[in-house]
Structures are given as C-alpha cells and as structure tokens.
C-alpha cells in the first residue's frame, strides 16, 4: 500500500475506484480507535467505489501508519487528513466516519468547511454536546454494568470515556488469553476477530508508549458555535443500544437541518455487524432521500427533529421489518423486497368479482 509523509508522520492509505466512466466525486472514509482502514475496505469500498473514488487511511498510530510519540488530539489528526488530501490533489470530498473518526472529520470540517461536501457520522461521541442540558444515564448501560460486575471488571458504564477503558481492559485480556464475554463483543468489535491479538498489542503500545491516551480522552476541541455553523449535508446514525446515542440526542438541537437515524437494537460497532443497513442509508442520503425538503413529521409529532428508526432493518445478512405491534417479519433478500411486502400488507383488498 502507498505511504505518504504528512506532517512528519508516515501515513498508510489506499484509493479504490472501479474505473467507471465520467467525472467521479471523492469519498474519504475515516475509521475509529483500535481499528484501521480495513474497517471500511472489504465491505464498503467495493460498494461505494461504484459511485466515488474512495480514499481510506490509517490514522496515525493505527494500522500500518507510523506511531509517533505525540500528536493524537483530533486537531492533529484532522491536519493529517487535510495534508493527505493535499498530497493526493483532492480539493473537496464527501466523508464517512465512525466513532472517534467522526470527531476527526468534524474537526476537519470546522477548520476547512468548503472541502467537505457531505458528512456521514456513525456513532460518534462529541464532548461539547454531551454537556448540553441535564446529564442523562445510558439506559442500556445498566445491562452492560451487570455483565462487567459479573466478570469482576471495575468499570463504570456511565463514565464518558467508558469505551476507551473497556477497549484497554479487553486488549489486556486478549494478550492474557482470557476470552472476551459474548455480551461485550459488539462493544469491542476489533478485539474479537481473527486479528484480535495484533490489534490488542498495537492498542496497548499506543496507550503505553505515546501521549494518545491523554490526548484522546481530553477535550476534543469541538465547540458548539463551530458545529452550529456547519452547512454541509449531515447524516448522523446511532445504535439504539450504544453509549454514543446520548450524543445523537443532544445533537438534534445543534443540527436541526441534519438527518438522524437510529439503528435498531444495534451497539457501537454496527458498521461491522450491520453493513447492509449503513450502506443503504448512505446511498439514500447521497441520493437526496433524507433532505429537509422531503422530511415529514408523523401525525401528532411536534415539528422538531428526531432520531428516526426505520421500520425496515438488516440483521445477520438479511432484511426484516417491524409491524406496529412490534412483531418482526422476515427474512427478506433485500430492503426493496421487505418494502414490497409492507405495501402488500396495507394495500386495500380487491373485492371478489361474482362469476
């Protein structure tokens, strides 16, 4: 894979393009902590390269990029992204980012707004918005806390940096040969796959040999005034069971023009567990289906923004839909097939014609 020297750091990246004819816009995909560009490469790049030229990168300290001693604040990593775009001659791009990668993408968007054509955020925490209004507890965290207590883990699910601490503890367990509990798997997705031990070693080296822990768990540098000024189209998705959902609920006030979608019964790593759903939502977003002009509030809803959860959703590689009585129907081979079944269910019956 190619390497670019950006801000004194060797960054690993790859570009994917299916070679389609005509002018193609740019898409940059930014992974979160303890992962790498592989997070997007296998499932998303082949799909999205039919529409865009796709650029994936390993953030500093991750994947095959260099691990310097310093420079892990979102501002530093946003400058890395900007430097890489300069190196590749990319003037502006659409962005898709997960978790901490979303903070990096937002920092870049605040500093260079004209270079961001649109932004898809998948389950990103933002410190500033979490301080808006009264603090709320993470409802699903009560179930997770019981699992932690049962396994003797002295972690607090209500801690805003719970995810960082959990990844570190699970990385230690991986290297000790202790199995990660199944109930925690979706919270620490990168530490449960075939490359779990390699990921664990790299994460612990990052935490122990650099300033990353202090800088990543400090102020992310995003101010509400800056966030409110963003005018690019934004799609923000949050898992129903994710700790980051609290950020999504707070962002409703900050971005009334944005589209917020809930991922039914999903945790933090839904881009891995539910790729069809994220791909579908991105395509619908880029196609204009979620624009403010087309948004409609349901009867009885106040005219404000909501985190909307689709009746149709993907799970285990297949599609389902929920009835009004919360019955799960399916499976179906595609989202379109599920929608056709819904239409058939609610279509007016045609009276029989007498012979």
Q: What does this 3D model show about the protein?
A:
This protein has 355 residues and is of the alpha/beta class. It has three domains: 3-136 and 221-310, Alpha/Beta hydrolase fold, catalytic domain (Rossmann fold); 141-215, no CATH class; 315-355, no CATH class. Helices cover 36% and strands 18% of the residues. The chain has helices at 38-41, 45-48, 74-88, 100-111, 127-130, 141-150, 162-176, 196-209, 212-216, 224-229, 245-254, 270-273, 275-286, 335-346; strands at 3-6, 9-16, 25-30, 52-57, 93-98, 116-122, 234-239, 259-263, 307-309, 312-315, 318-322, 328-332. The protein has a nine-stranded mixed β-sheet, sandwiched between helices. The chain has a three-stranded antiparallel β-sheet with strand order 10-11-12. Strand 5, helix 4 (100-111) and strand 6 (116-122) form a beta-alpha-beta unit. Helix 3 packs across helix 4 (100-111). The longest helix has 15 residues, at 74-88. The radius of gyration is 21 Å and the shape is globular. The protein starts with a strand and ends in a 9-residue tail after the last helix. The model has no long low-confidence stretch (mean pLDDT 89).
């Amino acid at each position: 894979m190619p390497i670019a020297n950006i801000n004194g750091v060797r960054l690993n990246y790859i570009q994917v393009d299916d070679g389609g004819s005509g002018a193609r816009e740019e898409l940059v995909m930014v992974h979160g902590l303890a992962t790498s560009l592989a997070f997007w490469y296998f499932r998303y790049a082949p799909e999205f390269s039919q529409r865009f030229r796709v650029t994936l990168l390993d953030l500093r300290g991750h994947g095959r990029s260099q691990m310097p001693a310093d420079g892990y604040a979102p501002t530093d990593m946003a400058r890395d992204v900007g430097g890489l775009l300069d190196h590749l001659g990319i003037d502006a791009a659409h962005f898709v980012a997960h978790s901490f990668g979303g903070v990096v993408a937002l920092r870049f968007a605040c500093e260079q707004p004209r270079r961001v054509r649109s932004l898809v955020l998948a389950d990103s925490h933002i410190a500033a918005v979490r301080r808006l209004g009264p603090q709320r507890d993470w409802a699903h965290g009560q179930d997770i806390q019981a699992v932690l207590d049962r396994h003797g883990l002295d972690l607090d699910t209500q801690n805003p940096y719970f995810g960082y601490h959990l990844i570190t503890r699970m990385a230690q367990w991986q290297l000790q040969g202790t199995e990660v509990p199944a109930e925690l798997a979706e919270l620490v997705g990168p530490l449960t796959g075939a490359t779990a031990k390699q990921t664990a070693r790299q994460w612990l080296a990052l935490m122990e040999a650099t300033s990353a822990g202090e800088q990543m768990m400090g102020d992310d540098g995003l101010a509400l005034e800056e966030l409110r000024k963003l005018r690019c189209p934004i799609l923000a998705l949050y898992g129903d069971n994710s700790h980051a959902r609290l950020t999504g609920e707070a962002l409703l006030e900050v971005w009334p023009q944005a589209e917020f979608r809930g991922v039914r019964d999903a945790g933090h790593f839904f881009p891995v567990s539910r790729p069809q759903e994220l791909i579908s939502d991105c395509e619908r977003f880029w196609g204009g289906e979620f624009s403010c002009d087309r948004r409609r509030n349901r009867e009885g809803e106040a005219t404000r923004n909501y985190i909307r959860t689709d009746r149709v959703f993907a799970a285990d590689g297949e599609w389902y839909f929920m009835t009004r009585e919360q019955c799960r129907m399916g499976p179906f081979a595609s989202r379109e097939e599920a929608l056709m079944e819904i239409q058939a269910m609610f279509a007016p019956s045609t009276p029989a014609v007498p012979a």
